[in-house]
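FAQ: What does the model actually see?

It sees only this:
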Amino acid sequence: MDSEIRKQLDVMPCRTTDKTIAELESEGWESLYSFHHTIPEQFQDACKRAEQATASGLYEVVLVLGQTELEKKDGVQYLYKRKTEKLLSLEKQHGH
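And it is asked to produce this:
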């Protein structure tokens, strides 16, 4: 992993996972946003989306790096979200 990606990972307001998208989806994660980390506007938007999703404590967000060699080369990354216990509890209380 090059140093630019490492710097970006340090400012991304969520953790990075090594799991594949298929693994995450089988665990109940859903897509939040896909972007190119090489395009500053998209990267900044991804950071904002991750912050917004986690601010209320209702969602957990992870960063998924490109899945194929082409995606890695092109700088494609993904944000995935999953409901936290807090949200699941609120849904249960309200009969969802």
